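Protocol step 4 of 5: obtain the predicted structure for the target chain.
Materials: sequence only (see below). No template structures provided, no constraints applied. The aim of this step is simply to have a reference model before the mutagenesis design in step 5. Sequence pasted as it appears in the construct record:
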Amino acid sequence: MDNIIFIGMPAVGKSTVGVVVAKRLGYHFIDTDIVIQEEEGRLLKEIIREKGIQGFLEVEDRINAGIEANHTVISPGGSVVYCENAMEHYKEIGTIVYLQASFDTINRRLGNAKKRGVVLREGQTLQGLYEERVKLFEKYADITVSEDGKSLEETIENVLEALEKLS
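Step 4 output (structure tokens):
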């Protein structure tokens, strides 16, 4: 259980916070969106365009469930919480940290969700996606760190303090 896995909405800072936490702890860092692109040989948006959302989620589940790591901070995409095999794997190999932010914060940070590569089903709003995913983030989280009204440095310190309390 020596890995740290960040979950949360797009634009919550999983990769940004993850890189700094990895540096501060002397851990490795993996952004699984990059791993997916490398293994599939194309961009995430191209995979979604070619395979559809369900096909993308199958790829995401397979690749995340196959991540082997030690002393590593892992930052998967926001949709990983739909991937049961991946989330079971992450529960087994590490501590799951949910970076929580209000809908208003996410909406402000994201700007155009489609351009950012957010996986929205036909007719789904960002608000609907947020409400759907929050339940899953809460289900899988070992630790929840709220970002609302916090600077990047405060979020990082709060994550490190919460991890310290667990150990």
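Step 4 remarks: Residues 10 and 157 are 21 Å apart (CA to CA). The two ends are 10 Å apart (CA to CA).
Proceed to step 5.
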